[in-house]
Structures are given as C-alpha cells and as structure tokens.
Amino acid sequence: MNKITNHMPTAQLQALDAAHHMHPFSTQNDFATRGARVITSARGVFLRDSEGQEILDAMAGLWCVNVGYGREELVEAAARQMRELPYYNTFFMTTHIPAIALAAKLAELAPGDLNHVFFAGSGSEANDTNIRMVRTYWAEKGQPERNVIIARWNGYHGSSMGSGSLGGMVGIHSQGGLPIPDILHIGQPHWWAEGGEMSPEEFGLMRARELEEKILEVGPERVGAFIAEPVQGAGGVIIPPDSYWPEIQRIVDKYGILLIADEVICGFGRTGNWFGSQTLDIRPHIMTIAKGLSSGYQPIGGSIVCDEVAGVLAACEFNHGYTYSGHPVAAAVALENLRILEEERIVETVHDETAPYLKQKFESLADHPMVGEARIVGMMGSIALTPDKAARAKFKADAGTVGYITRERCFANNLIMRHVYDRMIVSPPLVISKSEIDLLIQRAWQSLDEAMAQVK
Ligand code: PLP
What pTM, to 2 d.p., does this model score? Predict the structure, then answer.
C-alpha cells in the first residue's frame, strides 16, 4: 500500500477511512456513502481540510482546544518531556516531576479545599474513578450501603460503562446493558424544552427538588453522591435557571451527600472563570476535569478531591488506577497549557472582553425567524431552533432533523457548530478574537437562512 499522506487524493483517504477506521458516536456506513472531511492541520481557531478549505472551529474540537491550535510551547513541552522521561507510572511508591507539579498547580487553582488530584486518561475514566472513590469513601466511613449515586437525564459524563451510566443519555443506555446498578436519574433543568407554563425560576426549583424527592424515595442513608455538570454541555448547553443550583446546594448540604461537579467542559475558563463551579457558585467535594486541562493536546483527565474525601481514602489501599494515570508527557503538556492560560490572562480576557462581546452577538441570533432562544455563558452557548417562538414549539420532523440540516449548512459554509436535536451549539477556542466572532455569527446566520429555506 502507498504511504498514507495528505498528498493522497481526498477520495482515496476517505475510502481507506471508511474501510478500516471505526468512528465514535457515528453510523459507520455513512462514511462509505459520503466520506469524512479529512482535517489535515489547524492554527488558532481555524482548521484546514485536505481540499485546502479553512473552517472556523466554533466547537474547539470537542470543547477542548481552549488555547487554540498550533501552540508551539505545547509541542516543545511534549518533546522535552519525551526526551527526559517518556513514561513512568506512579503506582508502586514512585512518582515523577510532571505529575507532582501538575497536581500541586491544580490544587492551587481549584477552589476551596480541593487539594488532591487523582489522574486519569480521559473524562470517562475520571468519572469511573469517581464512582469507585465515592463508594470506597463511604465504605471506609462504615456506611457501605451509601452506594447510590444520583445523576440527571440528558447529562453527559462519558461513554464507558460507569460514566455512561452516570450520564442520562437514552441512546447510550440503550446499548450494552447500562446503567450499572445504583445509579439513578432525576430531570434536567431545561426550561425551554420542559418548563411548560412555569417561569424559569419556578421550574428550576422544581427540578432541583426532584433531588430531594429521590433522596427520600431511596432513603438518605443509601445516597452517596450527586453528580452534575455546572452547565450541561453535550445535552445541548443547558444553562440552568438561577434558582436551580442554590437549591441543589441546600439539598446536598442538608443530607450530607457528596457533590461531584463534572467540570470536563466547564473547567479551565470555558464559563468565564477557571471553573464552572465558581460561575455557578457551588461547592463540590470532587471536580472531574479533562479536555481544557491540556487544551486537548494530550489525553488527560482527573478528579480533584477535597481534604475530607482524600483524607479518608489516604488511610486505605484504593485499588484503582490506569497505566496512563499522570502520564508524564500529558502532565507536562497540561502544565504548560495552564501556564499559557495564566500568563496570557486568557480566562480574564474571556471574562472581561471576548465573552461579553460574543454574548451580545450570539444573543442577536434570537432575531432570526427560526431561533427561539439564544443563551450563552462565557464561551459556551446554544440556540433553540423552532417553527414557533412564542409556543417554544418543536419541529414536527424526526428529532434532530432541522438541527442536522443546519449543522450541514454550517459545515458547507466552513463553520463547525454542533447540534443536539434542534439545538445548535458553540464552544469556540477561548482565544477567539472579536473579528473571528463576527465571522462566526455571519456564517451562522447565513447557515440558518439556508437551513430555513430547505425546511420550509
Ligand atoms: N464529562 C463531560 C461533562 C463531558 O462533556 C465529557 C465529554 O464530552 C466527558 C465527561 C467524557 O470525557 P472523555 O470523552 O474525555 O472520556
């Protein structure tokens, strides 16, 4: 076989891809009929494909390339670390400098007494860690029956057996025997779709109180933790009503259950602060991290754990870990990524300048005849597509169709936006400039026009 390079014709690359590469969250046969777009390089907020097209990546990859593409410092950090120590584990009374330095840095950045880090290779692995950590914590405290973890429908926490169970995605639960036992779900604070005649604030309170109802139904002595994303990401960027999180916090405090904030998307500046927990004013015992931790340049995730939980675990042997927990190259890159975020004041710039600018522009999409609401926090936002704004109506076509058409129009117009059913999402690199934001909005508007013409 010829060497596969980006000099190969696109059609040939696509044929090989369809024949041999099984894609995540995809219908594999689509790749044979249509061919995937082959992404060959990237700089800043732009991707380049094998046909030489420049695409504005308004999703920062999968919500992760926070510092943008093409950062030489991260390349150098990886190369340096590979020369020095490409791999070693931290299992059997050994450690290494990148893991020490990254854990200490995260303890400094994380709020409250979240001072301890257990590393994983991804967000899914980190949430699997959380399940085992919470249950081990309660068992060590002499309450092994507290193994129920409550999560939310339409939340997303990964796609392994454990993290996919924590998530409330019906499509994931329908394959492979999920959820695992003792993971229970309550409703999501998605006012636009589910709020009916209630005000957002009433609805937020109602949904938060489902947590208390579930705790009482199961028995408070059996509930170990509640897990949620500060702002649901993959569920459609669902920004909860203001009443929601204070009530959740009251309930977890009242029953003494652990709160796990899944910061895999919200962390590292995405919501305009270092962590979504700060933006939403919540006090988790554990935060799940990944994605923006390394800006996606290396696969790394982890759990940042409070003094109390880490203290209890410290006295027992916690029989858990991954070959790549605290991988030195990934840790070195993550550390350099945090240095860039800090020294270039990227989170502050998002908070003070670019996010307010994006908010103003993004919310103007609500003037489009097919857009019901446009909501954004920091650099994550979504619009609801609707045939009738006042009624908050859904399109009649199969779920996802109008969103899918709009996504395809965006793609054709060299803009990457993701769709979740009939919600369109943006989550651009945090370094996006004001003129790039203008381009994003212009391409989004044009794509909405084209999609509307196709739907009507
Ligand atoms: N948690 C949240 C909130 C996520 O959005 C994701 C991925 O999108 C995950 C966990 C899983 O992370 P990974 O894909 O790295 O396993």
Answer: 0.98
